[in-house]
Amino acid sequence: MVSMSSKPKVKKREINEENIKKAIEIMSMVLNDLAAPKNIRKTVKDAIDILNKTDMTPGVRASASIQMLDEAIQDANIPTLSRTRLWSALSILESVKD
Asked: pTM, whole model, 2 decimals?
């Protein structure tokens, strides 16, 4: 039987995982966008790989990915649409907390 105190934790974990999935969907759009430079696509792929790892908590995965995406967004060569998509993914990931 699940105790009352663990229900919010389970719900929070489900919400975090759902937010990570949403962010991965958005990041995949950038990954598949041939207008985005190769270095940006590689950074996005690395961030997606981190988000897909299961050996870390959702908050740690989100934090590591946020750092990578923040660097990619600062790149002067990134197309506006890709930058906007990464901002969207980043804002979703910022809501993921342990």
From this structure: 0.88
